[in-house]
């Protein structure tokens, strides 16, 4: 077989000096720096174009209200070249960042659940203006320790309701064990409730070391408002 013969349909292209022309090899573009640069430039151009289209989509989403109408944009004086440029020399970065965060905020708000949280029970509260109660006062502690909780008083009315005083009944377990009301402290004793306000009242029970474990129940009442009351459930654990 001679040097100028064909192998598998490929002409070896061997020159008189005994060297083959690498450009005649089918995979020669792999070793061609110019071809590689051209391919890389084309990939970068396509990437920049895709990024520009994506940014345009984000801007259109931010500039459009959920009902399809255009948002009202507050006109501001154009920034100078120095103001627009960042430390690396890039320009118009701030509008892009603002559009990005506005878009992210829309997605987060749209995907957030609109229903109340399903964790735990309703916070105990007393509507002293509307004569309504919600939730129950729950707490727990070891025997010999201190149990704490909190109840909120709400006044949505436009007039001052003066000072509100709460009282708590003795707490009783199913076996007849009792925690006397003298061990229970509601603080402050008298709560000022001005118009359109809310006030928190602390609930503290000092447990003796000999208090029997169990669930003790009772009632928190509002002085002068017999229609307002909250159930109380105190769980006493064995001393640690």
Summary, kept brief:
The chain is α+β, with helices and mostly antiparallel strands and 240 residues long. It contains three helices and 14 strands. The chain has helices spanning 33-62, 81-84, 93-111; strands spanning 6-7, 10-11, 125-127, 132-134, 137-142, 146-155, 163-168, 171-172, 178-179, 184-187, 190-192, 197-206, 214-222, 225-237.
Give a verbal description of the structure:
- With 240 residues, this protein is of the alpha+beta class.
- It has three helices and 14 strands.
- It has helices spanning 33-62, 81-84, 93-111; strands at 6-7, 10-11, 125-127, 132-134, 137-142, 146-155, 163-168, 171-172, 178-179, 184-187, 190-192, 197-206, 214-222, 225-237.
- The chain has a five-stranded mixed beta sheet with strand order 4-3-6-12-10, with no helix packed on it.
- Helix 1 (33-62) packs across helix 3.
- The longest helix is centred in the first third of the chain and has 30 residues, at 33-62.
- The termini are far apart.
């Amino acid at each position: 077989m001679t040097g100028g013969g064909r192998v598998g349909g490929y002409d070896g292209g061997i020159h008189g000096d005994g060297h083959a022309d690498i450009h005649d090899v089918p995979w020669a573009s792999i070793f061609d720096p110019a071809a590689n640069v051209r391919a890389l430039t084309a990939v970068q151009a396509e990437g920049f174009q895709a990024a520009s289209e994506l940014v345009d989509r984000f801007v259109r989403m931010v500039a459009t209200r959920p009902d399809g109408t255009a948002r009202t944009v507050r006109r501001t004086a154009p920034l100078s070249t120095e103001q627009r440029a960042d430390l690396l020399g890039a320009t118009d970065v701030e509008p892009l960042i603002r559009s990005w965060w506005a878009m992210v905020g829309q997605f987060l708000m749209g995907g957030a659940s609109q229903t109340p949280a399903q964790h735990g029970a309703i916070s105990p509260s007393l509507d002293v203006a509307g004569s309504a109660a919600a939730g129950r006062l729950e707490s727990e502690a070891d025997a010999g320790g201190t149990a704490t909780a909190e109840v909120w008083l709400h006044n949505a009315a436009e007039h001052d309701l003066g000072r509100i005083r709460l009282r708590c009944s003795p707490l009783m377990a199913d076996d007849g064990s009792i925690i006397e009301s003298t061990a229970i402290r509601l603080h402050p004793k008298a709560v000022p409730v001005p118009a359109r306000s809310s006030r928190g009242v602390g609930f503290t029970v000092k447990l003796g070391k000999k208090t029997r474990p169990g669930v003790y129940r009772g009632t928190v009442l509002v002085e002068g408002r017999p229609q307002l009351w909250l159930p109380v459930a105190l769980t006493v654990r064995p001393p640690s």
